[in-house]
Specification:
The chain has helices at 2-53, 59-123, 128-133, 138-212, 215-262, 268-281, 283-294, and strands at 306-310, 313-316, 324-327, 330-334, 339-341, 346-354, 358-365, 368-378, 385-386, 391-395, 405-412, 415-417. With 426 residues, it is α+β, with helices and mostly antiparallel strands. The protein folds into 2 domains: 2-212, no CATH class; 227-421, Glucose Permease (Domain IIA), CATH 2.70.70.10. α1 (2-53) runs antiparallel to α2 and α2 (59-123) packs antiparallel against α4.
Length: 426
């Protein structure tokens, strides 16, 4: 009974250790993958930053790129901090497990030694054979024989338990040493990243100083940028509004046809309600909208590799604190002539040329619309059916920055959405 309980204890301990290790390993694996992704993106952005520094006219773009890198570097630091904390937790658990096992082994060894001493005293130095046959009666001999069997079985079981725990102890000690080495590597990497972050912050201060000396040019660029964005937004709104009007007109025509057929009079109130709801009630619109809705936060990026250099919405100017900049979408710095891919299934609603944004493509996904601007070469035509991930063109060189950038927007009917909330995390 005692042996069974001890075996159960070992199995339970092993199960707890394995489960804890698996959970820690999973968390560790996720953190390591996130860190590798961020460092890869930082390296790509650093190469783009080096190219930008060669042109004094692109100094503001250098700032935006560097700011993006600093953000990623800070995220790397946060990830490393979690990894170090995770490693420390594993080490502390391992130390506790090693201590428990050592005490268990020590206790078992003492019990085993006491059993041997007790058996020796009862034998009085005789062998098992002589101990049995020196009995005064057959009944005593049988009892001694039964006793020796029990002693041998218990002694063997104790020995097996000790061996099993010693093997487990060796494994835990090795794991502990490995985790200590892993933690040291993480701390070294954390120190390295901290040094790189400090260098980038110094570079940022230098760029800000240089840019503030050229405030007049920056203000002129900002005015031009705002005008360009207004033209782009006006063109997008025009196309979307026309599509909504067309869809509602079709819905109204269907309503009138149905009314005429049924010889029923439709009130203005009923007609207006039908016009306002039909665009979302059409089966094909609902299907595309539901597909888009269900993938919020999981949509693929419109380019394979890229870094967001301008975020969504109204934000303070990076250099001129009294001014603000507005962005109806996001600007993604990518590779020259990178392929642009549709983020979801839909229909090409329009293809337009917009000054400063080159070609623009709008794809309808039910009540949602995705916008792709600064396209050098367009591969699609209006009314074309598009699958998610299908190539629609190549990225052009942005007029202001002189770099390959994609301007990307998401609209819900006539409301602008934040694209970063829809794209999957890289």
């Amino acid at each position: 009974m005692v042996f069974v309980q001890k075996i159960k204890f070992i199995y339970t301990l092993l199960l707890i250790v394995v489960c804890a290790f698996s959970l820690s390993a999973q968390t560790k694996s996720q953190l390591e993958e996130r860190r590798r992704t961020l460092l890869r993106e930082i390296e790509e952005t650093a190469q783009q930053l080096e190219q930008t520094r060669k042109d004094k006219e692109q100094i503001l773009q250098s700032y935006n790129t560097l700011q993006s890198n600093i953000g990623k570097r800070q995220e790397v630091m946060a990830t490393l901090s979690l990894e170090v904390k995770n490693a420390q937790g594993i080490i502390e658990n391992s130390i506790l497990e090693v201590d428990i096992l050592q005490k268990e082994i020590q206790k078992l060894q003492i019990e085993y030694s006491n059993i041997l001493k007790k058996a020796y005293k009862m034998h009085l130095g005789m062998s098992d054979f002589l101990f049995v046959f020196s009995s005064s009666s057959i009944n005593q001999a049988f009892k001694r024989w039964q006793y020796l069997k029990q002693i041998k079985r218990f002694r063997d079981n104790q020995a097996n338990i000790i061996i099993a725990k010693q093997d487990l102890l060796i494994q835990k000690i090795q794991m502990l040493e490995n985790n200590k080495v892993s933690k040291k590597s993480l701390l070294d990497l954390e120190q390295q990243q901290n040094s790189l972050l400090a260098d980038e912050l110094k570079q940022k201060d230098i760029i800000i100083h240089n840019l503030r000396q050229d405030e007049t040019r920056l203000k002129a660029e900002l005015v031009k940028r705002k005008n360009d964005q207004k033209k782009l937004a006006a063109e997008i709104e025009k196309i979307i509004a026309a599509e909504i009007k067309r869809t509602r007109a079709m819905a109204l025509e269907k309503s009138r046809a149905a009314t005429k057929k049924a010889k029923k009079k439709v009130t203005k109130k009923t007609q207006k309600a039908y016009e306002e709801t039909e665009i979302t009630d059409a089966p094909e619109v609902v299907a595309l909208s539901d597909n888009f809705d269900s993938n919020k936060g999981r949509l693929p990026w419109p380019v394979q590799r890229g870094t967001i250099v301008k975020g969504f919405g109204v934000q303070p100017h990076p250099i001129l604190p009294k001014l603000t900049i507005s962005n109806n979408g996001i600007d993604i710095l990518t590779e020259p002539k990178a392929e642009i891919r549709a983020v979801a299934k839909g229909i090409v609603l329009g293809v337009r040329f917009v000054p400063s944004f080159k070609n623009m493509v709008i794809i309808q996904h039910g009540k949602y619309f995705s916008v792709y601007a600064n396209i050098e070469v367009v591969f699609v035509t209006p009314s074309q059916q598009i699958e998610g991930g299908q190539s629609i063109g190549t990225v052009g060189i942005q007029a202001e920055s002189g770099r390959p950038e994609l301007h990307f927007e998401i609209w819900r009917d006539e409301v602008k959405m934040n694209p970063t909330s829809w794209l999957k995390r890289k």
